[in-house]
Write a structure and sequence with these properties.
The structure is a homodimer.
Chain A: H1 29-39, E1 55-58, E2 63-71, E3 77-78, E4 81-82, H2 83-97, E5 101-112, H3 117-134, E6 137-146, E7 154-163, E8 180-183, H4 189-198, H5 215-225, E9 229-234, H6 239-251, E10 254-258, H7 266-275, E11 288-292, H8 297-305, E12 314-320, E13 327-330, E14 336-338
Parallel strand pairs in A: 5-6, 10-13
Antiparallel strand pairs in A: 2-7, 3-4, 5-7, 8-11, 8-12, 9-11, 10-12, 13-14
């Protein structure tokens, strides 16, 4: 019953010297060569010296945010992104929406024997470009190689440290009746892009992932509407629906959406209709929800729209007293309906 | 060519409710149940509230150590330890030998569909016991479930933050001619224990892993011989040989060992002879090397031997001017010989 989707296997004709082998695994000279000449050389910075078991960091203050994510996305490359940039942006975004400035990253690779070194290089280059874009440094890491079949291609863990230079938003427990729900852009793109790539669906145009960092958008939001923001969250696994269900559980109120106001790209909408997927349940990797005091609705939307990446930000609903369900939606045709919390696996391995 | 060693498969008769399924994966209600009722409840502490994407931490100073490791050991349980405690001690030890006091841990799980929930519980309980023993808190985490065959049982990433409350040792670049090389206990146990368990070798008595935390030993060393210590390192992948080769590369000197002085347990020595493995190349998970100024040899050994865990600490060699090889050994019979740096895979998936 092995799911071979996305497994990278070396063509038989390829010399083993072009692939990762078990010789790269166990504290050997080959390991040191791989780490020194293929990984460390890409992440040179003042904190990375030798082959550090631990990086020594100097903080500018004593309040930090700490977050971790493992990435197991299949396939490794998809329209709009790849596992490398995704692993950087995912952790950067968790730090950013917590209200922290992303600073340092650890990078841990689990590589299946037989992955072409060219594939590894491509992923590493993507990680370098993504960390540059986020002004964040990889300062410590780990590399494990497992025998063929014991993993599927490449898994990446990134763990991040951010600094709290301003007071973070109070969080979803502080959400009140009348608060406004904003989304930073069109929803559901990432889940559909990965699904379409994995299943090789002949969609035209193919959905592209929204995979992107949100630290600049969050900085703008804090600058323009800091005091009025109750909560921010990037709507990753489980999509917008999962975040709103969590927020409802945290504040005890109903999140009410207006279907006509929810931005969805045409190609995502088309794919969702074809596949019977609700875009509210599909994952995002560069799109966030914001709950904000109603008095600050205009300035918060203006702040979002002032950044090109979130120019299509929209108000999608409001917070109301506890009603028929944790999350409801006013459909284009018909009355208010509950939005289910997804109960099973929609799209495994989308991040 | 799938290596099925160590894969945990649910017996067909077991109800799916007793196993991890893909429904636990994707931001669904099942995911929230798994995380809330099986993971978060075990790691309750003031820093873990709700289902945090990021933990907020207050440091007592501005200098921290940051380290990451992914654990892919097979089998998941072996004499003397298991993947859970190993994942805690491995990261704690990286922080400790860097000279930091271990404080916080992230915990990221990649679980193969079909792993029995009872197995997951056993691993989580082992993690809890290990963190208690190390006085360290798990404050943030991530859980991914991948389809059967896309991983092998359970992989764990732990990433740790430690605080520098005292000046760390200067490191291997500061090692000088005449320095003394100490080891905290018998070597090579972990690699042999895992190999014997995986290959079901009928060794009697079976080698037991030395998997254990070193933070208390390091605290004692810093207290008793802080100024005289040049470098400390836990001798994990690649064993004592790999660490000494790295130190030689860092300081440009030869590490010279005395074979008769190197402590090796009888069962490890027997297994090594049987299998043709040099204990210098076999991994340890709770045994460290210390390079120290010769004037502090006695007090450093006394400090090590004052802790029951490292009562068998020994002087195993000295540092000499660059000679015939990076690392040499005076064999019991015969003259000084070079110790090779392992070039290939001895024992994959030993941590």
């Amino acid at each position: 019953m092995k799911d071979i989707t996305g497994i990278i296997q070396c063509p038989v004709a390829v010399d083993a010297g072009d692939c990762v082998t078990l010789a790269h695994s166990e504290g050997t000279r080959a390991t040191r060569d791989l780490i020194t000449n293929r990984i460390l050389n890409r992440f040179a910075n003042p904190h990375v010296t030798g082959t550090p078991d631990a990086a020594c960091l100097s903080l500018s203050n004593n309040q930090i945010a700490f977050t971790t994510d493992s990435f197991v996305v299949s396939p490794l490359f998809f329209p709009g992104g790849d596992i490398g940039s995704l692993a950087v942006y995912g952790t950067v975004n968790d730090l950013a929406v917590a209200g922290a400035v992303p600073r340092w990253l650890s990078l841990s690779l689990i590589i299946e024997e037989g992955v072409p070194l060219a594939t590894l290089d491509e992923i590493l280059e993507s990680i370098v470009a993504a960390t540059d874009r986020c002004n964040i440094s990889v300062v410590t890491g780990d590399t494990k190689v497992v025998p063929r079949g014991a993993a599927d291609g490449v898994f990446i863990n990134t763990t991040g440290i951010g600094e709290f230079l301003t007071t973070p938003p109070p969080g979803p427990e502080s959400i009140r009746c009348g608060d406004v729900l904003l989304v930073s852009g069109p929803i559901g793109s990432h889940g559909l892009a990965v699904l379409a790539a994995r299943e090789e669906l002949a969609l035209e145009p193919a959905p592209r992932s929204d995979s992107a960092p949100l630290h600049e958008v969050v900085a703008e939001l804090k600058e323009q509407a800091g005091e009025s923001i109750r909560a921010m969250r990037d709507a990753t696994r489980g999509g917008v629906s999962a975040v709103l269900h969590e927020w409802s559980a945290d504040c005890g109120l109903t999140m009410t959406l207006e279907e006509s106001a929810i931005p969805v790209n045409d190609e995502v909408r088309g794919a969702c209709e074809l596949l019977g997927i609700d875009p509210l349940h599909s994952a995002n990797e560069g799109t966030m929800l914001i709950a904000v005091d109603p008095s600050a609705e205009e300035q918060t939307l203006a702040a979002l729209r002032s950044v090109p990446q979130t120019a299509l930000a929209a108000k999608i609903g409001t917070v109301q007293s506890a009603g028929i369900a944790a999350v409801t939606i006013q459909r284009l045709l018909g009355s208010e309906q509950p939005v289910d919390e997804p109960t099973g696996a929609l799209l495994p391995r989308i991040c």
